[in-house]
Every structure is written in structure tokens, then in C-alpha cells.
């Protein structure tokens, strides 16, 4: 009997689930993707700036998997026929903005946590005496703590404030003292269960990462991430419902009924299985009736709001010889990170075109700083970028602001256990995918979507 599977959420996790389902289910399986907004892709969105394709969301993804080989995102791109379109950033160093000066990010750290305290080059002064071997592992099996709690106790405040906070902030827009070690740095959490010093744990975690020598760290799709989205939608051969919110999810026997569309004029659709690939709050709302414990656990997740500022500066604008820089929270700026797009991706922008800069604005708990108008945010970003880069920037020839309200999950300590418990509380035929449970980043979301598809396929095969 022909099966129908609904995927709620058309971001990269939902699209990866749709493609995997198309690959593993019978040819006549009907796959339906419901996306509340008017476009697929979620936070993958390619824009344009002075004629140059510039991402308004995620700019790149990890090229390699933590245990070696290609990342899930690279494998996904190859599955979609985009292997030849993968490009890598130019080998440019990045910096930290500290005290009005740019200092190169020390080499050999693990998300800012050093394994060699002698290699910090004065960026931060560690409390090396605190990292003594007490004869006990740093963490008990399964224990989770905030990243900042562990690093402060071993290296002191300055390493957290100047290195770890800006590195984590660049990815999560959050603070090290609130983010789960096990969710954000799982390999370090694992090695901390056996190592007696943080230096030893970092080195052991780095050894677990089997990156091929010379392999680029990051990859992107020439022409923009929207190509990945479009290729996935084509490969899935799914029925796509854009601008169609799913308002309710009801168990009806061994099937599911979806209540769709505007509240004054709803319609229903029956399906055999459902994959939820939406942020925590809408996922919790849809799960409230069918899986209240899962809804409670998922709904507790908080999010940070951020904005991106894109600027096309006149050709010839001088910028530091860097791919960009990160800004520690203690500097007090709205800008938390900047990418010198033209230097980082020269093969995408051309030698004679405008100088493209992207700035990331806002951190967790600072939503009110993003309330000003787009024009005001651009003015702040332009001024701060010049001050942080140590140069007076000319007025941009073109610019935009992209707001991502509630865009980045904030994984508090204990998140992995809560995610595991949430999945265990789901009824048969219902799976959850995406950043709300499994982490940020395109490879993680792709793998999460594929896992959900495999779970649903196994249920339907049983």
C-alpha cells in the first residue's frame, strides 16, 4: 500500500530527510514538505550584493567529519550532483579584536581551548598552575558542565573571555558560561572523562579528529547555498507546500492527521508518518497533544537573535590581510564577528569588483540591541568595523541587513540528555530532526534529517 510521509519544515534538515526518504523508500511513496514561510532553505539563503552572490545565512560548512572522511554536508552535496561546485576559502588567517587591536588567533586550539599554553602569543594569559593532575578524570562518565565552568577552573578567566567566548559566540552567539560542553564540544567532553588535565583532554580530542593533512577545514557551494536547497528539492521529488502552516498534529489510529492552513479556513491531511524539522517552540506546540513529555523537553530550549550586515565597499578599499575577526563580548561592540568576504572567497568575488564585508551582530541576551532600524544597524556596523579593523572605511556602495530572530539555539548543560529523553518520549511514526535537538551547522542538520528519515523508514517497514 502506498505510503505518505509528511515533513514539517523545509530547512536543510527537512530537505535532507526528504532526499533520504526518496532514496530508501519505495518509488511510489508520497513525500510532502510543508514550509510555513514562502521559501525553502531555512537559514540557507543566498542574496546579492553589488552583483556578487553573498550568503544571508550560513556561509560555509565543515569539509570533514569529526572522525575522518567527508562531512555529511559534503556527502549530501555530492549526492545532489554538486561535488564539482564545492569550493574552499583562501588560506588567510583570522584574528581576535582585543583592546582596539587585531591579534592572530593562536593556532592549535579546540574552539578556542588551547592544548599548548605556550602558544597563546600573549592573546591571553592562562593560569597554568590550576591545570594540575589531581589523579582523577576531569569529568565523571556522562557528566555535563558549561564550557566556561571547566575552562575557567583550569585555565582562568582570560582564556575564556578572550578565546573561548568569541569562538563559541561566532558559532552560537552564546556565552561559554551558559553553553553545554557535551553539546558544543562533544569530543572534548568524551576525552575529559579519562584525562586528568585540560591540556591532556584537548590534545586527546584533537587526536580523535582524523583530518587528512592539507584537507580544507571549510567548504561552500559556488554560486551560493541556495543551489544546495534547490538541488535537494529537485532530488526529493516531494510535493512542496509553501506558506502553509501546520497548526495541529493528531494521532488517528496508526496514522497522523495534520491540520493545515489559516485558522479561519483549515483543512486536514492524513499521513502514515511525520518528521518534525522545525525550531523548538513550534515543535513543542505540535507535540503538545501527541507527546507532552517530548514537548516539554524540547520547548525548554532558548534561542538567541542575531543579524547580519552585508556591505559592498568601493574597489580598492584596504583591509587587513585576514579572512576576518572575532570580537570578545568584553569589547562591548554590537559586532561579534566579521568576514572579509573578498579575501576569504576571492574566486567568488573576482579581483576587480567591490570589497565585500559581512558582519555578524548581536549575542544571546542582547536582543534589545538589535531593535533599531536597518539603517541604524548598518551605521553602527560600519562604524564599529572600521574601528575594530583600525581603518576608516568608505561608505558602502550597497548594503543590506538580514535579521534572524530567535535564530540560534542555546544549549544549556544537560542538553544531550534532554534530547535523548525527548526522542524516547515520541510515539511510533513520529521523528524529530534539526538544530533544536542535534546541534547547529549544516553537516549536523543534514545528518539529523537523514537519521529521522531512516527512523521513519524503519517504522514503516516493520
TrEMBL record:
Its cofactor is FAD. GO terms for cellular component: cytoplasm. GO terms for biological process: heme biosynthetic process. It catalyses: coproporphyrinogen III + 3 O2 = coproporphyrin III + 3 H2O2. It is an enzyme of class 1 (oxidoreductase). Residues 12-456 form the Amine oxidase domain. Keywords: Cytoplasm, FAD, Flavoprotein, Heme biosynthesis, Oxidoreductase. PANTHER family: PROTOPORPHYRINOGEN OXIDASE (PTHR42923:SF3). This is Coproporphyrinogen III oxidase. It comes from Actinoplanes siamensis.
